[in-house]
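thought: fold this chain, then report.
action: predict
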Amino acid sequence: MDIVKDIDVIAVTRGPGLPACLGNGLSAGKALAAALCKPLIGVHHMEAHALTARLTHPTPDLLPFPFLTLLISGGHTLILVAHGVNHYTHLGTTIDDSIGEAYDKIARLLRIPWLKGRGGGPGAALEQFAENGDPKKYSVPVPMTKDKRRKEAMDLSFSGLKTSMSTLIEKQNLDLDDDNVKRDLASTFQKSAITHITDKVELAFRWCKEKDIPLTALVASGGVASNKNIRSNLESLAIERHNVPLICPPPHLCTDNGVMVAWAGVERFRVGLVDEYTIDHIPKWPITSLGSSTAP
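observation:
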């Protein structure tokens, strides 16, 4: 096959994730690499999200390191400093639900209808409902603001928001058959969730300043990074407070996709990070273990 001549390397997701899915994909990738006698690169799923911003950077040059990275999806909520390929500092993560999971749970709680398939989902439907809602009509607390120690930490928490929303609906006996009520509730939830995220990213900016890390940008990636309200608030935070741009991949590259894995393979291949055909999948794989002597 002529196309084989154009392939330099086979990149495949190695982890983290569901063992069955990872195992099947990695087996196929290893078999293909071996059959074509091509180098193999096992990609860390979160590094792939983080590095996609370098591929889609609006200028001809790649986005330079270091940059602050917010990875937000249905399964992950992470704040990282990307110092370089294979080199990350973990600043914060969710201690319970991810932001995407929280959006989905609240959408189901409010019985918001959504379209299944491409471009749909409960989280996206909630965002659309929230656009025409009044975020001041109701009130729920921003997570982790009552306790000073938790407020000053860079970890996040979203499970309490569902409890707060449930309590609000029950105490005020709100009618979830009324779309206007649901729009106001969706907007109320989104305002609290976004405030929580921006508060923690602000702490991350301050940490980097204290450590004299010259950030070039704030990168937001992952499926939830396609949320326009989240992007707008992060952009204001990055540009107005810290004089760096917000860089987000286009929405179709924010969700899990093959392009990001291929690009991470390119980035790792360029710096000589090639794996053996015998590598195994890693369902639980901290991104900070990349580049360490203890990395798998």
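thought: worth noting. Strands lie at 10-15, 40-44, 67-72, 77-84, 87-93, 218-221, 246-247.
final: tokens above.
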